[in-house]
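Moderator note: this is an archived Q&A kept for reference. The question asked for a predicted structure of one protein chain; the sequence and the answer are reproduced below.
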Amino acid sequence: MGLQTAMKNLMTWDETRRYGKFIKKRALEQFLEIYNRMKLRPPDDLKYGDEMEYMLIEFDNVKRAARLLLTGNRLCEKLNRTCKNEKELVGNWTLEYSTFMIESTPATPFEGLAGLGDVERTMNARRQEGQARMEENEKLVTVSSFPRLGCDGALADSQDLPLNGSLMDSSFLPDFTVTLTPRFEAMTRNANLRRGRKISINVPVFQDRKTSRPVLENFNSHVDSTASRADHVYMDGMAFANGCCSLQITLQAKDLEELKLLYDQFGALSPIIKALGASSPIFRGFLLDLDTRWSVLVQGTDDRTPEEQDTLISSASRCPFYPRCSSIRSYISENGREYNDLPFPVDEAVQKTLIKEGVCQGLAAHLANTFAREPMLMFEEKVTEDVDHDYFYFESLQSLNYQAVRFKIPPPNIDMGWRLELRVCDVQLTDFENAAFVTFAVLLSRVIVQRKLNFLMPISKVDENMLQADANDAVRQGKFWCRVKSSKNNDVFERLSLNALINGLEGKFDGIIPIIRGFLSTATEMHKSTRQIVDQHLTLISKRASGDYLTTAQWIRQFVRSHQDYREDSVVTEAICYDLMVMCEKTSKGEVRDSRILA
């Protein structure tokens, strides 16, 4: 969810720009204050948590229609009001970007390896807690992308909501789909203003047997068809991107040095996790030739001007300016610096100041890259405030850069250390699957630290892997760059299957799951019942990678293509969408178990 605030007097884009230097100056002061204060902090224990995002869906079983409810604000208020009266909070509930979404986190972080036994149970309790505050025909469903968002009839009670509003200017979605917190309003409006035109998203259509070639939609006159591309699905608002549900996993490191190590290693591995968690093969009523939400997220949050976009393709003399949403742009540990083979923009003055204050060069460059972007959010109250107790300035820069892994500072007034957040995973249908990814990430962090594993590769290869991870059936069909064994003990990189990376390939790669299982064989702090749960979670990840279990995206794709109403033309009709959402909802509650995705 990122930075939220109770302040109301949001500045305009022009006013925010005028305060850009002021915001960056204060943000730098805040980071250095945190950096110097944390030097005296003793090592932290392992703690972790998740952020789960849900779609709010209304089912009309008479008309066989599934529609998104624009009631996230009301549900969140109801949850927070009623939960405060209960003795023990199961979860914390917060608004999300879109009014048809809501987010939950555990009431308290999980601790140590023993906490892995509580993750799935807590997720299930939170789901029940949210569902209990909804009507009988309203469901809390963990689907990453609603298949017909942007199509007629996709939103409940939306007939009087105008399109092409002053906020998004979308020809497909009303502004009411955006939750009007100051942060969400500012990032939406200012992205359009900064780029000089509204958001433009184009993602490739899956070419089925009867799909028209080329795919050319007949848009109404209010749609800017010049921004659409043949054989692509066109979307034109940030709500298509930030209206996707994800699973985000946060890990607390022992100290800053451990955080830098984990940030780099997870940055290199993030494409693998993204591919395993793929669950978004449908957008705006079309099957795509992609399986994850990531490409939509990259394009749908892109505030770059045309000139900045051109630096990626047309000018060798200018430093390329990447979208706000991307893979990591650089490694931050000293061991990772040699693999930073792609240039990226930095605020040189900030970089020099950080290095002068003792920040290592890798972290200084990473932060200077964050400071190279224009601030997108500012309030009138902050101009005259003497002391900033919430690190607003730093977080206003940091929280609007959406990289695959996020470096997180200790929050104010909470006993918490340095953390990283893994942001690439689409949300999964069931709590078992979502908990399995948390288990996998936590145990992977432990073997990286204790076994001193090294997955680093050139950033250019990480970027290639990120693109591969989006592809249709990337788990079973794709090949990913990785560091393989070498008799000469030097850097050797090869493309291997995801099965080889996760389960191992003799003579090339030991496999992440066998390494984790070897580590667990010596772990003494885990109860037998927790170990059984962990083994089940690891088996899911292993069988996903081997192809024995389908990713959610491939399961959805098979459901659509085998539906009696499907015409082999890549179109997902309202009837198909309804049946798919019914099946997703029943699967998420455990009423249906499909052996193609779960044992």
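Archived answer notes: The first helix runs from residue 13 to 18.
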